[in-house]
Each structure stands twice: as structure tokens, then as C-alpha cells.
Amino acid sequence: RSKCPRFGVDRMKxxxxxxxxxxxxxxxxxxxxxxxxxxxxxxLRAIDGATIDHRGPAFERLAMRVLSGIKPIFQTSDPxxxxxxxxxxxxEAALVNTLNPGDRVLMAETGxxxxxxxxxxxxxxxxxxxxxxxxxHGVRAADIAAALAKDTDYLxxxxxxxxxxxxxxxxSDITAVRNVMDELRHPALLMVDTISSLASIDYKHDEWxxxxxxxxxxxxxxxxxxxxxxxxxNKALQIHExxxxxxxxxxxxxxxxxxxxxxxxxxxxxxxxxxLDEAITILEEEGLxxxxxxxxxxxxxxxxxxxxxxxxxxxxxxxxxxxxLTAVMLPDIHNADTFRAIVLExxxxxxxxxxxxxxxxxxxxxxxxxxxxLMLAGTLSGVEMGLSxxxxxxxxxxxxxxxxxxxxx
Length: 409
What we know:
This protein has 15 helices and 16 strands. By secondary structure, the chain is of the alpha/beta class. The strands form 4 sheets. It has a 7-stranded mixed β-sheet with strand order 4-12-11-10-7-5-6, sandwiched between helices. Helix 2 (about 40-45) packs antiparallel against helix 11 (about 270-285) and helix 12 (about 290-310) runs antiparallel to helix 15. The longest helix has 22 residues, at about 290-310. The protein is globular and about 60 Å long.
């Protein structure tokens, strides 16, 4: 029995609490949150490789493979930088590399993560113009157009959108945003968060005219958390040369210079890059279009199950419903976190919680990454049994509705 000096707790007691308060549950745990997602065995085995010299020739070959191989996932020929960080780090990198202190940025509220991105921008000293939203719809291009049309002095330097809002299960039309920017000939940069859509929902950095795309490793790329990405247009690179925001770790200049030689300006997450290399291979084997079709098919089956249960999704417009996750609303008198706890205890399945203003009101089903029909059937079965166990009014037959769709599509 020994004390942990940092936390002042009895380490043996912590261990005993872990093993005695968690009864054994046979079978696999169903991790059905919208990320981090299930990591395939192939990727786990790749990560399990021996750590190598990150200044040696073997690492150089690895780095060159992943720096090249990640580009088709973004559907770009532009540089893609890889940071050892969560997606929040990639948000910060996008802002500090292209803007000046006090610059105005236009952001649209679509859910918890657009709100967090605004908070980060505020902390960096940027002037955020925030277009309010109801968390049930995507970015409204008309609202973007109205704000930009009033900006005759071009004070807005960047338009920031979340492609797929992980807290709500709502996807935004980025092409519509780009179109209104082009129609108004507004010079602002377009920055897009694809953390829960990359490698799950069709996204075209080049074709859609995005200047900085933000990505993360722990969702469609099927990796553990720890890597994030910036895909960078030539326009953004040119603006970067004169941008005055303070930066060090996030500096694109240092990253780009090192990457040319298959290196990083600091110690990279070598073993996660092994996993990324394997993830790229897996996506190539399936084919990106097939990956998108699979996600769309499983998402539609999920939505049909929710409709059959007589429940409501957060997304109110079918064309905006996410193919990465589905956020399901419960009747007002029922707490979604209580429901999730019952599902975890009874069926060993983790569902996503409600975030921000949706806390306690919704649960989220993740159906992205390494995911197939049988996994979805098990997930929906757990939800349907959980609804009964929690005494939540619903219609029977949601699982069957999903199976019927999967069998016929």
C-alpha cells in the first residue's frame, strides 16, 4: 500500500475500486460513441511496432508515405500538416498561422464544437462575429452571405464552419458557403472543421475551395486520439507569410520545411504514424467512394430505426442528417444520461452523451470508422432493449426497420 505523492490517494484503494466495483461482463464492449471510435486490429498491430529513430532513414520513409498518402483522404493536392495534438490543436494552428491580432472572423453556431472554436478564437484575441443557430440545422449560407455583404471594408478575414457537428449529428453544406463567398467576391479565407466527417462523409478540400481544413485521427481515420491535421491552400500559405499572430509549436513554416525531408521540427508521435500508415492502406483498399457509401447506408438504417421507435433526431432536415452519427432526443421527462447508464450497465455498450445545451436531453449513436452491418444490428438492439429497461415510451420494431432496409439496399 503506497501513497501517490501527486494526487495524495491510496493507489491500492484505487485499484481495488476498479476491480471490485466493475462486475465482469462477458463478450466485447460496444463502443458506439461518435469518437474515439473502435480501432481495428490491423491498426493496433501497426501501432504496436518498435519505436524507431525519428531522425533516421526508416522514419523518413514512413513520414513521406503518410504525408503523401493523407492527401487523397482530404481530396487535395495541397500540403497536409500532421500535428501531435487533438483537433483543438489543429483549430489553433489554423487561426494563428493566417491571422493578425484583433482580426475579425465569422463563425456560425451549429452546436457545441462551433461554440468551442469560437471560445478558442476569443482567447487568442480575435474579434469573433458569431451567427447564432438553433443546434438543429447546419450553417445557413444565406446568413453567411448577409454578414459578408455588409462587410464592405473586408474586415472579416476568415469564415469558419464545422462540416459535421459531432454534438448534434448535423452536416453543413460547405459548397453553398463557398458559392456565396465567390458570388460576393469576398477575400476571406474559408476554414472548415472535418474532425467527425473526414474519411466518413464526402469532403473535397480542393473542389470546394477550402483554404484550411482541420482534421483529427480518432474518428473516421480509425486511430486513437493524438494526431490532427491542417490541409492548406496556396492562398492560405501566401497569407501565412505576413500573418502576425504569435506561434511557435504550431508554426506552419517550420513544419513545411521539415516535412520536405520526411522529418518534423519536434519529436513526432512515431507509433501513431505507424497506425496512420495502416489506416491509409485500409481506406485505399476499400476505396474512398465505397467508404462514403457504407457510412451513408448504415446512417440511413439508424435513422429508420429511430423513426420506427417514434423518437426524434436532433437533425431536422434529412439532407443535413449526419452519416457519422445520429443524435436522438428523448421525451422531456426522461434523462438521456440515466438511459445511457442503464445501457452501459445492462448491455456493456457506451453511447455518446449530450453536450452543452443538449446535456441530458439526447444520446448519440456513433456509426463511423471501422463499422459494419452486424455491428450496427448489435448497437440498435442494445438501444432498443435499453429503451425498454429504462421505461422510455417507444414503439417496437426499430431494429427490424433497420434490418429490412439493410437487407433491401
